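Entry 14: structure prediction run for Type 1 fimbrial protein. Input pasted below.
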Amino acid sequence: MKFNKYLLATVVATALSSAAVQAADGTITFNGTVTDSACTTITSVTADTVEPISATLTLPPVTTTTLNAATGTYAGQTPFSIQLTGCESTAALGNVRALFTTANSPASDAHAMANTAPPAMAAKNVGVAIMQQNGVIQIDLNGGAATDLGAALPVSPLEQNMVLHYKAAYKSLGGTVTAGDVTGVADFVISYF
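Run finished. Output tokens:
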């Protein structure tokens, strides 16, 4: 099993250093709604286990008033996690994290997801950000400097399971946020370092 981990680490390191397009380990779709009312509802998180991993996370409705407080305002922080199995540190690899990318970034923020909801129904001037577990610090998508800090791999003669915890949130992008649907899509690759 350790040989497989060394092989996996070599493959991951090679893939990350390559300029070629790489396949994602998974995709997460984030859906939500910005409203002009003061009431919100609680929604659930759904996920499936199709390879590669694909999940949909529903953010709670938030008001335009909340998001229009200032450019860069985060709201509706919603937890999600990525579960890993068979984890064990090696001499060269002691930590793990997810690296997130998106094919659609807003012009004003290359490190968040653009709203890709159908234009006729889409909220304007709002995107989706991925946050550290604390829900305060944004993790940059697309290779930005603010990466996930990661988690230490277990040091044990037995492989263990791990869970990486994150939050997703609406992010105001400048201009007046309008009511409507919000959709953002991010891919992730598990990175060992």
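Notes: The longest strand covers residues 74-87. Will compare against the previous run tomorrow.
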